């Protein structure tokens, strides 16, 4: 992928140089980099808030109670024999983070869940079925409240930032259902 991007950039700069639009390319680079830094600064408060909330949850009984209630649903998707209490807690936090649309917190909890799953993995050279299922859930991530996207749309003065909720529900539910079916079939076929 990096070769493709490099090729596209070289072609764009070459065409801009030939057509005499180098100033436009440089101006676009500067505007794009400035906008990306502004986005990070504007969204960092929300990221810190949700990261802090999930850290608090992980230090209290709330997470253990939630994980226990959530575990019956998790057992439908994951192999019980290859789970421990800590991995269930991190998987629960990961899925909850995704449901709230807070991908940054989901990433941290997903990494911690995979580390826990790796500790009990029989074959250390390959991911087990629970790991692949978690990666699928993290990638397809059903989002009830797409917090980051709503915040970005509000940042760019959208007239209705939350108008994306129903389309996101449709897309994430479809991708999740297809993904779960595919991962169950593939996990059973791979030896």
Short description:
The chain has eight helices and no strands. The protein has helices spanning 2-19, 22-59, 61-77, 85-99, 103-119, 129-140, 147-155, 165-189. Helix 4 (85-99) runs antiparallel to helix 5 (103-119).
| Class from secondary-structure proportions | mainly alpha
User: What's the shape?
Assistant: globular
**C-alpha end-to-end distance:** 30 Å
**Could you tell me the mean pLDDT?**
82
Please give the radius of gyration in angstroms.
21 Å
Q: How much of the polypeptide forms β-strand, as a percent range? A: under 5%
Number of helices: 8
Query: What composes the largest sheet?
Result: none
Give the count of structural domains. 1
Overall helicity: over 70%
Instruction: Tally the beta strands.
Output: 0
Stretches with pLDDT under 50, minimum 5 residues: none
Order of helices and strands: HHHHHHHH
């Amino acid at each position: 992928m990096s070769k493709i991007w490099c090729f596209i950039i070289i072609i764009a700069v070459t065409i801009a140089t030939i057509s005499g639009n180098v100033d436009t390319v440089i101006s676009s680079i500067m505007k794009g980099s400035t906008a990306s830094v502004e986005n990070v600064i504007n969204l960092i408060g929300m990221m810190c808030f949700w990261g802090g909330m999930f850290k608090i949850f992980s230090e209290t009984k709330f997470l253990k109670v939630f994980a226990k209630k959530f575990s019956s649903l998790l057992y439908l998707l994951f192999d019980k024999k290859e789970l421990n209490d800590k991995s269930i807690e991190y998987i629960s936090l990961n899925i909850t983070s995704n449901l709230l649309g807070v991908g940054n917190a989901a990433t941290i909890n997903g990494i911690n869940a995979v580390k826990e799953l790796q500790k009990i993995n029989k074959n250390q050279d390959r991911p087990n079925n629970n790991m692949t299922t978690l990666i699928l859930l993290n990638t397809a991530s059903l989002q009830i409240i797409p917090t980051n996207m709503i915040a970005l749309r509000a940042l760019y003065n959208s007239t209705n930032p939350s108008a994306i909720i129903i389309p996101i529900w449709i897309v994430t539910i479809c991708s999740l259902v297809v993904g779960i079916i595919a991962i169950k079939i593939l996990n059973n076929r791979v030896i």
